[in-house]
Design a protein that fits this description.
With 111 residues, the protein is mainly alpha-helical. It has a domain of 72 residues. The protein is built from 5 helices and 2 strands; from the N terminus they run αααββαα. The chain has a two-stranded antiparallel sheet. The N and C termini lie far apart (71 Å).
Length: 111
């Protein structure tokens, strides 16, 4: 079926940003060694999971723990969140590994 020129150019300019976005993500984004977690939607992340599930949020996190382990990665509006379910794992991750980076106080404009 032959479309009018306006429709062809309109479809081209609508699909071009999506193709460029996926090409950029595929080619230039760094691949990090991140913990496992639930699948996420492109913009909102994994926000729909708690609302689509009949379980409470606490039970949903417990199910994720059974499925993905003690350390879970989930996304919210393009930001990565790491949920640590075990005290020993959290202590190892934040106190032993990043103690120097996390122990400093932020600079204050007053002094």
């Amino acid at each position: 079926m032959i479309l009018p020129a306006f429709t062809e150019s309109f479809l081209f300019y609508i699909t071009l940003p999506f193709v460029m976005y996926f090409f950029y993500n595929y080619m230039f984004k760094k691949k990090y060694n991140l913990p496992p977690g639930p699948k996420s939607w492109p913009i909102v992340g994994s926000i729909p999971d708690p609302y689509s599930s009949p379980l409470s949020y606490k039970r949903l996190i417990e199910d994720w723990r059974e499925k993905y382990g003690d350390i879970i990665l989930f996304k919210r509006f393009g930001m990565n969140f790491v949920y640590v379910n075990d005290y020993k794992q959290g202590y190892k991750a934040f106190v032993q590994t990043f103690s120097k980076e996390l122990s400093g106080r932020p600079l204050n404009s007053v002094g």
